[in-house]
Structures are given as C-alpha cells and as structure tokens.
Amino acid sequence: MEIQNNFSLKNYNTFGIEAKAKQFVAIHSNQELKTVLEQHLTDKKFILGGGSNMLLTKDIDALVIHVDTKGRKIIEENVDFVWVESQAGENWHEFVLWTINQNFGGLENMSLIPGNVGTTPVQNIGAYGTEIKDTFVSCQAMNIATQEMRTFTKDECHFGYRESVFKNEIKDQYIITTVVFKLSKRNHKINTSYGDITAELEKNHITTPSLIDVSNAVIAIRKSKLPDPKELGNSGSFFKNPILLKTDFEKIHLKFPEMKYYEISSTEIKVPAGWLIEQAGFKGKRFGDAGIHKNQALVLVNYGNATGQEILNVSRDIQETVFKTFGIHIEAEVNII
Ligand SMILES: Cc1cc2nc3c(=O)[nH]c(=O)nc-3n(C[C@H](O)[C@H](O)[C@H](O)COP(=O)(O)OP(=O)(O)OC[C@H]3O[C@@H](n4cnc5c(N)ncnc54)[C@H](O)[C@@H]3O)c2cc1C
Question: How far is the CA of 205 from the centre of ligand 1 (A)?
Fold first, then answer.
C-alpha cells in the first residue's frame, strides 16, 4: 500500500480529465482501508471507485482512496434464490456477467454499466427498467471517522431515482466495502419491455430469451447509443430526467404538446432530459474540446483536452437554456467535484 503525492487522475475518471490528487492510495482489503483511515484521521479524504460518475473540475486537495478490493461469493442459497456478495472494487459489468454465467437472474438489464460494485448503491444505478434496489439486500460500509463497520439494509439506504442515503443524509461519511444481492436461480423475471430490447431480440429471431440473450441485447443497444469512454471521454447521462408534478407538467404540456413524457405515478411525470436538451438545440454541439454527443444529447463529452471547468460551463449553459425554454430545471446526475 503506497501513498503517492501529486498523482494524476486522468486515467481514473472516464471523462479523461486531467486533475491531480494531493495524495492517492489504492486499497486492496478492509484492513488496508482501516489502516489508511487511522493514519490519516485529520486529513481530508475522497473516495474513488471506477471514476465513471464524476466530473473533476479542479485538483483534489485530499487523500484520494481508490477502493480496489476484489472477490465475490455465494453466501446463501435455496431452491429458488441465491444471495451473492461482492467486494466493492469488483468491476460491475464483470460481476454481472459472472452472475449470468451461473444462470443467476436479476442484473442482466444492467449489463455494461461502467464502474464498481461498491458504488452501485450510491446512486441506485439503473437501466432498461431495472434498478439495483430490485435485487439489493444489504451492504457493509466503514465509517470514515471511526472505522467501525455497519450493515445497511435496503430500507436504510433510502433508495430513490439515482438517489440513496449515501448521496444525501450520510454523504462522505461511509465507504461501502461489500454489497449483497438476492438473485433468482429459476423462474427468472425476464424484463424485455423497456427501450429497444424486444426489437433487438426480434432482430436476432429470439422469442424466448435467456438471461444471456437479454444481456447481449442490452450490450448491443448500449454500444450503438452510448460513446465508449475509452474512445470519447464521458460520464454517461450527465443529467437526471426531471420529475414534475402532474399539475405543473400539464401547464407546460399545453405550450409544448410534442413534449415526450412518462407517467411514473398518479401525480408525477418524468420528462426525458435528452429530449429537452435536443430541442434546446445542443445535440452534437461542440465548444472547444467540450461538447454534447451527436447521437445522445444527455451525454456530455470530452473530445480530448477539455478541462472539467469547460464541461461544467457547457452543462450550466444547457441548464439555463432548458430552463428559459421550458421552465424546467434539469439537475446533474454526475457528481461535480
Ligand atoms: C458510458 C457510461 C454509461 C453509464 N450508464 C449508466 C446507466 O445506464 N445507469 C446508471 O445508473 N449509471 C450509468 N453511468 C454512471 C456510472 O457508471 C454509475 O453511476 C456507476 O455506479 C459509478 O461507479 P464508479 O465506481 O465509477 O463511481 P465513481 O465515479 O468512482 O464514484 C461516484 C461517487 O460515489 C462515491 N464512491 C465511490 N466508491 C464508493 C464507495 N465504495 N463507498 C462510498 N462512496 C463511493 C464517490 O466519492 C463519488 O461521489 C454510466 C457511466 C458511463 C461512463
């Protein structure tokens, strides 16, 4: 366990932004994590997983702790279900493929989401009609100040749309070390209703899809829609889809009848932020090396040497224009550092 000074984070964030960490350490076990925290009680700390959900707008004046713990195992099973536990530093997509290879169902719709398993509860990741809260059982986390371990049940995580207790009430207080999921062993709930999954399966003449079929369909769709961060720096969806009260939405909808929307409850409507940004004229626009992806207006990109501040400025410009145009505030999903 080596602490490095003035460490470049360019290869540790999927935007590919150049920013320096005052200090950087990769930890490979809970014991190492405890030791580092004990030795740096009064230093500022910053927790880094796969760096796929952050925009670094400045150097990090803190000890950056990169969670790199590995390991996954079955901790319990019965005829119908299996409980699997993964260390926080495992790559999410590799973990998903590992579960599918054993015919464990529940995570297949979230194939190919970048980042680490330990970060998935932080924003309750989701895609194609599934969120991790649907299979999440609990996670363990270390208190940064006291180094005590605590188990968080699903209820205690206060999961919402791209939200959890870790982003709100106890932000920056805990480091998630392991996560447990409950997955199906048979009678899988195959969910192909969302997005283009059905069309993708039909294209391949698949009528009764298996877990791997769904995963492959999701992977193919994502690859066709989203830029690969290895080729074009980005952090996935930069903004959340705004949720409006139905009464407010109805007034806006009268002015913009072509506006796309989804009813999510009897009182709430979700509007696709990508549509708002596209209508506001930003899709495919480029400002120096910062820009908006040509196929997906929700994704801001780094064409090479953009600074985090430049990307942040573009995001603010988008927010202001969308607000002026539609009267709707769109909030960043990405963590702005
Ligand atoms: C191309 C692309 C597509 C994406 N698609 C999706 C999608 O479909 N759905 C979706 O939900 N997200 C998506 N994302 C966002 C991202 O992949 C997820 O949010 C992912 O869970 C972030 O994981 P990470 O390990 O990279 O987190 P990081 O970016 O390293 O960290 C994110 C936040 O969590 C904190 N954190 C990191 N590790 C821990 C820990 N162990 N304990 C406590 N806090 C921690 C960090 O301090 C930071 O505030 C996408 C990103 C990209 C680049």
Answer: 34
Question: Could you give the count of Cα atoms lying within 13 Å of 97 in the half-sphere of its Cβ?
Answer: 10
Q: What is the pLDDT of residue 150?
A: 98
Selection from 236, 259, 245, 246 nearest residue 325 by Cα = 259
Rounded mean pLDDT, 277-301 = 96
138 is catalytic: no
Q: Render pLDDT for 84-104 as a digit per residue (tens, 0 to 9).
A: 999 999 999 999 999 999 999
Q: Give the Cβ contact number of residue 223 at 10 Å.
A: 11
Q: Which of 61-75, 157-171, 193-207 has the least mean pLDDT?
A: 193-207
Which two structure tokens, joined as six digits, stand for 48?
Answer: 């880094």
**pLDDT tens digit string along 194-252?**
879 999 999 999 999 999 999 999 999 999 999 999 999 999 999 999 999 999 999 99
Q: Measure 67 CA to ligand 1 centroid, in angstroms.
A: 13
Longest dimension (CA), the chain: 60
The distance from CA 191 to its chain's CA centroid, rounded to whole angstroms, is 20
Quick one: which of 124, 171, 133, 140 has its CA closest to 155? 133
Please, are residues 312 and 216 in contact by the beta-carbon 8 Å criterion? Answer: no
Of 162, 164, 200, 235, the catalytic one is 162
Strands 60-67 and 20-27: parallel
Question: Which residues is 182 bridged to in the sheet?
Answer: 83
Whether 1 and 11 have beta carbons less than 8 Å apart is answered as no
- CB atoms under 10 Å from CB of 89, counted, come to 22
Beta strands 286-287 and 290-292: pairing type?
antiparallel
